[in-house]
Structure prediction request, 523 residues.
Amino acid sequence: MGEGHDSGTSDPPVLVARDLTKAYGATRAIDGVSLELVPGEVVGLLGENGAGKSTLLKVISGAEQQDAGTVELDGAPLRPGDPLTASRHGVVAVYQELSLYPFLTVAENILLGDYPRRAGLVHWAAVHRQARELLDSLGVDVPPAARVADLQLAERYLVEIAKAVRTSPKVLILDEPTAALDPHDVQRIFAIVERLRAAGTAVVFVSHRLSEVLAVARRYVVLRDGRLVGEGPLAGVTEQDLVGLMAGRPAGSAAAEAGRARHARSPGDEVVAVESIGVAGVADISFTARAGEVVGIAGLRGSGRGELCRVLAGALRLDSGRMRIRGSEVALRSPAQALAHGIGFVPAERKTDGLVLSMSVQENIAIPQLVRTRRRVASAAAAERVATSFVDRLRIKLSHRGTRGAVGGLSGGNQQKVCLAKWLAADVSILVLDEPTRGVDVAAKSAIHEVISDLADAGACVVVSSSEISELTRLCDRIVVLHRGRQGGIVAGPDFDEQEIVALAVGTAADGGRSTHETTEVV
Prediction:
């Protein structure tokens, strides 16, 4: 895996970055990084959180001005810190933080600033027609007249990509395009990327899901601590090779160790039981979860995974059915009431639902304890001691202000660890996690998996919803599969068949949507 450019094409590069350096205070986010992008090539940009990926992307797209180095587009210097010029010349970026206006329609967002006109007025029929044609060409089934605020997160990302692709860019940067998507939508993204590649677009694809990078990209670039540490063709390269480059050490066996721990567990008594529960978009779901067990929730986007998690956590009230906790029927009406029953919840959207970004790390960690004890003020010294202990336990990387620094200043992986620390500090016995490793790097993902396994080993009841089936098969003892808001089956480990789970999720299982491994425990 030597360094050096090998695009497999003799075309001259469309974009050349040389010796880029960018510092924020005393920290060098990127340090002497060089990069070439060739037409019709997909490059996987890899690195752990804090490696410098986002800074590099912002510099080459004109969103940030480098301190040193140059960027050339088609042989001409690209003006530093000028994203509008970069976009006009064909460099377009789609970042994790979407730029759509939520209260405008899909069509209005896609054609924003370039509405067709007739007799001096906006020709709205043409706006919607052009948006529909573009969406259809990309295989995106979203109504042009729908408000963006009413779309699911995955649909918003697809609209954001459609907006970027409309300008036929020479270089398209996709920063974590699949983080919020289920396997079906991931394939849509792959199809879009392949279509653009075939048309001659240079695509930079950033993802923490290494299997996706291997599937869609032809070349890799790895950053570590702001420096380029490896690049080359992906042919013959394994996930373990890439992990080793990203981490600066041989890939560990954390996943295998988690699997061994899972297989050795002996679940205890029933802790949670749901019978024929239903809310908007979910109907007739029944399963149990026991102490010392990890139960997975699988399903495509719109299958009801998120709604089911919110029901279990008291964030969504039941319309029908029953729920029991430790044998007693409950009607959870709020997360605070769920917490009183020992239930913690790590939501899919950590920035909006899981954390108060303006508050400090120690304040966020203390919130569930304050709610549970109904204390308005906690000792600052005690709060700091508790926060520090969990920061150390979870290996959370803090800012220079330590536990008193705002949680909004942390990387995504460290923010997610703070979400976990909240509930560990509150000593909950039931933990519900919705997409616990979305948008986090390989090291953080491994650490989160370790925490989940440790909790189950210690006797906690853990429910994990994930769009990554491979994540569920590594972590879980059993997996509840949802299909269009209904239960497709319950698959028991340890020897999971991922293809069977996919078939249940899409409704094509040979037995009509009921797994041959389905248990008889349902209440």
Remarks:
- Residues 1-8, 251-258, 512-523 have pLDDT under 50 and may be disordered.
- The longest strand covers residues 27-37.
